[in-house]
């Protein structure tokens, strides 16, 4: 009854938290362990707050039925039945771009990235008994090292594999994109979806009289489709469900038809797992032999140009969305409605965003400059992070919080919904104190090259900070140290906004490691850690003063970097919780054994919620035989503050001569004697890594995969209305893969085979396919030899053995068809280039390489004279790390994979006991290749006659080499090629040769017009180029004339050919006169083109330059900068033109001595004449004569 009520609480808690509009009538729970939830939809608001380029619109489930045998979990089946799972994804419809929403999104992404980094980090391993532990090395306290198979196939995992029964029916995941298609020529909305008709996983069945168990699974109707379709996001719930269910009700379209929209056509697969499960003496069950067999009858893949085009536009849309969210916090704030924008701030923001983007370690490939910039920023960031880490807490956003609604905040700030920093470029300008870091220069001014705009930004920093963002509400008054820490925290948040969340998460992880290393060093110097060897047992009795209902479980570890025990789940009763759990630790007296860390969590289905923590000084616990105390946890949430835990500890020294005499054998016995009532209420849990268990280990693992046929169709644009689609079909028959691994001996064998390969051309002009490649070649006496065979084997201290064999292959080169397909690909070269650019992920810079290492590689050695243990023959040599910056760069770019390799178990010794695992011995047997060219056969359906046949005989090659060894390629009789180094070094040299050739072609090849070439050679080269251009123009003119003569032939309207006719006319050779035709009045021609004269005004102002020109009937006078707004005077009203006459305008600003330069124009009905000044008397006379000739 207790288990049923406990399960009911968990299910209700989950449903009320994650199910949208949860109704209790949709949930049924029985005492037999049945949980049924029907017709529900999960909440997606928290995921939308992440501001991802792909948004989860809805997640609906028709029925979820779970049967859990609570009292027989290890013997009876756990049944899970899920029906009608509909998931709708799409591009964001209403993203939030305000500063506060972006801050919550950014911090949530960083937090999730930190969780993932911690989740996939390698677990720390404690040293084996009898192994020397140098005090200068940071050794994490954890469980003894066990084999990977023992960690993976635990008894609980094996029980689940044996008994689990899963039935999944009608799963449809659909992604709708209504934004990316807007960039295409015809705006279109697309739908990409995956459908699964059913998945059935059956419980295992045991073979009678053996220890073999067989578990089978069947997949039916897996398909991936792509089509142009209307969006169903805004439809009603009933219409959406009908659209989701339509692919399961409608029949599949015929292959190769016009309506075929499948990327992956529906396929089925069968999986069977055979396990040998002997029973160990302790009753546990672990597998010794595992065999996996996969069978797929047929795989069909269709790739069209529409798929490629859409995928490129989608990736481009994701890239634009990602850029749109970056650096947006620094965007200047507008003054409001009716206010004036500060364009200077906008220009500063644009320049800063571009320069920061050039140093993005995710999108940009690293250079030495960007690497140095990022290293300096990382050093500053980690220094700031170490300083402010003690003042940071996780602040809940609202009452109903979860992992996405927490944000990092200063510990004295009151809860609020504002982003705790402004968006100005001011917080990273000033120099940091030398007490914090030696790399304290301003980020923008020093690293990113913004030194010119940095002083201006710093000058306005005070007004910007107070005007843009309100100050954070602070509960108590801050001290000077806290004020400094808060300013540093603001600077850290600005750096957070300059990088992507994955980079910031790695920087924070690096800062935590540095803090741990400094604390370890300080603890070792002060000797505050535990120095006694022995066994410590810690018991959690109960918890009191709980304020709300929770499902708690503890995690306990020694040291900050130690591996943690995970305790059992405990349900709270009123205000109390009874744990009754004991944890055992074997202490070694090393520097990392400073404290016992206990973290308390509230169980959730995804990321469990952190409740609080406390630390116990290990030196104080080992100084006395036993302790009994109550501790108050440091709560992460004010609602869980005040929780108290009773902890019992018992310590036994490892030596027989001891002054400490423990009264109790363990803390478990102490709880039984001291608190018998609590001990009797619940079965006690004992957690220990050190219990002697004879666990069976995995001896063999075999994997077999068989696929009947794989067909991949590359569809090209259709060139005819008849027949099938024009495409190339690649068909692989009887694809088979086998793997046999021996984990105990670290040996492995694998083989790969393809029975037959065929490549066909399907031409749209007819209905017959044309053979392109076939292997093996079809002969009168068929052979059973497969087309391709590949076998590899590897064992410790033995070279890698590779055997490759191919049979005869026939290639038919239908040149016109192949050329047409090549032209289709060449036409799409710009799209292909853009697509590859979007797909190719840039490598991470050197800054993030440190975060991917283990804790041992980051910790620097302390001052100790203890020598390191000698290296064994099977382990890699110990590398000494340089403390200089050049040593750091060498570490960044060097390959340290050998450091992470697990030492292999001892193998049978060879005759000379030499390790040859780095060597490679490869045998290649290539069959003959027959190449033929057929004749042109357009109208006959029979195969064309082969006009040329070329036979390339087969050969056998032997390749010997390896990592760091010279490579030799030879046949049975002679050597063909010899390399003095390995393949990697040779390929690197070829890359250098290519760079040198590129440099020579770009910079050292001289064009034909350089001075060093002879004059006659230059003229001949220029004549040849002109002649080639003339031939191209002649060909283009012929094509255009053909189009103009019959536009209907090319589906072109008659009215659209006018531009083509003009183009043909313009391309005709022009006759150029050697001498210009004589003109009666040259100045009249200049006036028609336009002249610039100095115009004098009558009333006010200085003389100004005006542009004067004439047309057929008008005289125009306009300003030089605005010719469109000209004053127009009819030439028919021009009465006379004079020179040397002082008009009122010339008398006001002119001079009598320059009267000969003046020209006056008198118009009928004008108030005053137009007065102009020329440069000389000759010009004024010619201009006046030209204008006088126009007087009627």
From TrEMBL:
**Which keywords fit this entry according to its UniProt record?**
Transport
Write down a Pfam family by its short name. Answer: VPS13_N
| Location of the Chorein N-terminal domain | 2-358
Question: Source organism's superkingdom?
Answer: Eukaryota
Among Gene3D superfamilies, the record links this protein to: C2 domain (2.60.40.150), Pleckstrin-homology domain (PH domain)/Phosphotyrosine-binding domain (PTB) (2.30.29.30)
**Stretches of the chain forming a coiled coil according to its record:** none
Q: Where is the composition biased (Pro residues)?
A: 867-876
Give the record's GO biological process terms.
protein retention in Golgi apparatus; protein targeting to vacuole
Decide whether keyword Transport is in the record: yes
Q: Can the keyword Transport be found in this entry's annotation?
A: yes
Q: Which InterPro entries match?
A: C2_domain_sf (IPR035892), PH-like_dom_sf (IPR011993), VPS13 (IPR026847), VPS13_N (IPR026854)
Q: Write out the ranges of the annotated region (Disordered).
A: 861-882
- Give the record's family classification: Belongs to the VPS13 family.
Q: Which PANTHER family does this UniProt record tie to the protein?
A: INTERMEMBRANE LIPID TRANSFER PROTEIN VPS13, VACUOLAR PROTEIN SORTING-ASSOCIATED PROTEIN VPS13
* Protein name (Swiss-Prot/TrEMBL): Chorein N-terminal domain-containing protein
């Amino acid at each position: 009854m207790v288990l049923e009520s406990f399960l009911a609480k968990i299910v209700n808690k989950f449903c009320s938290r994650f199910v949208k509009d949860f109704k209790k009538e949709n949930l049924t729970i029985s005492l037999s362990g049945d949980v049924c939830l029907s017709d529900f939809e999960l909440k997606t608001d928290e995921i939308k707050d992440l501001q991802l380029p792909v948004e989860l619109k809805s997640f609906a489930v028709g029925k979820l039925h779970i049967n859990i045998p609570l009292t027989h979990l290890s013997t009876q089946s756990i049944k899970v039945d899920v029906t009608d799972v509909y998931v709708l994804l799409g591009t964001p419809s209403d993203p939030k771009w305000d500063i506060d929403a972006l801050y919550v999104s950014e911090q949530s992404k960083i937090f999730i990235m930190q969780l993932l980094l911690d989740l996939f980090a390698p677990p720390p391993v404690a040293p084996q008994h009898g192994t020397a532990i140098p005090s200068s090395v940071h050794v994490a306290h954890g469980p003894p090292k066990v084999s990977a198979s023992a960690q993976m196939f635990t008894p609980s995992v094996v029980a689940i594999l044996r008994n689990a029964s899963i039935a999944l029916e009608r799963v449809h995941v659909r992604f709708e994109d209504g934004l990316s298609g807007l960039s295409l020529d015809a705006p279109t909305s697309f739908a990409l979806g995956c459908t699964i008709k059913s998945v059935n996983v059956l419980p295992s069945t045991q073979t009678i009289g053996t220890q073999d168990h067989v578990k089978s699974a069947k997949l039916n109707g897996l398909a991936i489709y792509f089509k142009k379709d209307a969006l169903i996001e805004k439809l009603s719930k009933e219409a959406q469900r009908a659209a989701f269910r339509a692919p399961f009700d409608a029949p599949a379209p015929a292959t190769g038809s016009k309506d075929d929209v499948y990327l992956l056509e529906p396929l089925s697969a069968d999986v069977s797992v055979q396990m040998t499960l002997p029973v160990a003496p302790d009753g546990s069950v672990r597998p010794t032999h595992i065999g996996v067999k996969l069978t797929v009858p047929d795989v069909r893949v269709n790739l069209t140009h529409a798929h490629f085009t859409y995928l490129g536009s989608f990736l481009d849309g994701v890239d634009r969305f990602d850029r749109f969210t970056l650096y947006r916090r620094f965007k200047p704030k507008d003054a409001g409605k009716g206010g004036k924008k500060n364009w200077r701030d906008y220009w500063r923001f644009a320049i800063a965003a571009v320069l920061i983007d050039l140093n993005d370690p995710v999108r940009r490939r690293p250079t030495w400059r960007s690497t140095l910039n990022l290293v300096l920023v990382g050093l500053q960031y980690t220094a700031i992070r170490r300083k402010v880490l003690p003042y940071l807490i996780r602040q809940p956003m609202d009452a109903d919080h979860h992992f996405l609604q927490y944000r990092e905040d200063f510990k004295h700030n009151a809860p609020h919904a504002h982003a705790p920093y402004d968006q100005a470029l001011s917080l990273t300008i000033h120099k940091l104190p030398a007490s914090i870091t030696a790399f304290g220069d301003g980020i923008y001014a020093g690293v990113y090259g913004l030194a010119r705009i940095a002083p201006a930004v710093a000058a306005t920093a005070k007004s910007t900070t107070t005007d843009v963002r309100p100050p954070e509400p602070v509960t108590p008054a801050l001290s000077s140290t806290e004020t400094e820490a808060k300013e540093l925290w603001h600077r850290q948040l600005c750096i957070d906004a300059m990088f992507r969340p994955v980079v910031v998460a790695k920087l924070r992880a690096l800062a935590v490691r540095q803090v741990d290393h400094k604390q370890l060093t300080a603890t070792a110097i002060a000797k505050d850690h535990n120095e006694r060897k022995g066994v410590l047992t810690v018991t959690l009795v109960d918890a009191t003063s709980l304020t709300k209902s929770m499902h708690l479980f503890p995690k306990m570890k020694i040291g900050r970097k130690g591996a943690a025990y995970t305790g059992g789940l405990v349900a709270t009763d009123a205000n109390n919780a009874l744990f009754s759990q004991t944890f055992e630790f074997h202490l070694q007296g090393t520097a990392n054994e400073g404290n016992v860390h206990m973290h308390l969590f509230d169980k959730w289905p995804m990321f469990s919620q952190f409740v609080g923590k406390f630390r116990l000084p290990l030196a104080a616990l080992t100084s006395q035989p036993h302790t009994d105390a109550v501790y108050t946890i440091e709560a992460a949430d004010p609602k869980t503050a005040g929780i108290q835990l009773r902890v019992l500890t018992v310590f036994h020294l490892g030596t027989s001569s001891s002054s400490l005499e423990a009264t109790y054998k363990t803390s478990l016995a102490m709880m039984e004697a001291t608190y018998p009532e609590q001990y009797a209420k619940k079965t006690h849990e004992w957690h220990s890594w050190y219990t002697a268990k004879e666990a069976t280990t995995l001896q063999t693992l075999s994997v077999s995969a068989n696929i009947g046929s794989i067909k991949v169709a590359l569809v090209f644009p259709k060139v005819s209305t008849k027949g099938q689609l024009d495409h190339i079909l690649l068909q692989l028959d009887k694809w088979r893969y086998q793997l046999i691994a021996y984990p105990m001996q670290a040996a492995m064998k694998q083989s790969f085979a393809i029975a037959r390969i065929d490549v066909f051309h399907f031409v749209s002009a007819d209905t017959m396919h044309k053979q392109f490649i076939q292997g093996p070649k079809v002969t009168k006496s068929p052979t059973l030899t497969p087309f391709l065979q590949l076998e590899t084997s590897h064992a410790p201290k033995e070279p890698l053995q590779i055997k490759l064999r191919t049979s005869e292959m026939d290639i038919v080169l239908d040149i016109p068809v192949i050329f047409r397909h090549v032209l289709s690909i060449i036409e799409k070269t710009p799209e292909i280039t853009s697509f590859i650019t979007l797909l190719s992920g840039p490598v991470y810079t050197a800054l993030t390489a440190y975060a991917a290492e283990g804790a041992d590689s980051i910790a620097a050695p302390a001052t100790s004279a203890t020598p390191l243990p000698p290296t064994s023959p099977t382990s890699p040599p110990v590398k000494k790390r340089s403390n200089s910056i050049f040593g750091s760069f060498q570490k960044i770019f060097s390959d340290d994979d050998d450091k992470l390799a697990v030492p292999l178990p001892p193998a049978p010794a060879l005759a000379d006991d030499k390790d040859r695992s780095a060597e490679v011995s490869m045998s290649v047997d290539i069959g003959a290749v027959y190449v033929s060219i057929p004749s042109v056969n357009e109208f006959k359906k029979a195969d064309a006659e082969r006009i040329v046949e070329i036979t390339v005989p087969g050969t056998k090659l032997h390749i010997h080499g390896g990592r760091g060894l010279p490579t030799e390629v030879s046949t049975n009789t002679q050597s063909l090629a010899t390399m003095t180094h390995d393949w990697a070094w040779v390929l690197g040299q070829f890359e250098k040769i290519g760079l040198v050739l590129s440099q020579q072609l770009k910079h050292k090849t001289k064009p034909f017009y350089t001075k060093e070439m002879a004059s006659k050679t230059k003229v001949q080269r220029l004549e040849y180029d002109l002649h080639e251009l003339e031939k191209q123009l002649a060909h283009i003119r012929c094509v255009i004339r053909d189009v103009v003569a019959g536009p209907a032939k090319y589906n072109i309207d008659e009215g659209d050919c006018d531009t083509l006719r003009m183009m043909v006319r313009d391309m005709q050779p022009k006759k150029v006169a050697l001498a210009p035709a004589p003109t009666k009045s040259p100045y009249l021609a200049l006036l028609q083109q336009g002249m610039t004269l100095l115009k004098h005004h009558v009333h006010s102002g200085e003389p100004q330059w005006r542009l004067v020109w004439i047309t057929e009937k008008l005289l125009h006078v306009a300003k030089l900068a605005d010719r469109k707004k000209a004053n127009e005077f009819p030439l028919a009203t021009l009465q006379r033109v004079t020179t040397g006459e002082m008009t009122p305008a010339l008398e006001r600003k002119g001079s009598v001595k320059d009267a000969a330069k003046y020209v006056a124009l008198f118009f009928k009905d004008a108030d005053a004449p137009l007065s102009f000044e020329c440069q000389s008397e000759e010009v004024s006379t010619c201009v006046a004569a030209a204008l006088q000739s126009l007087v009627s």
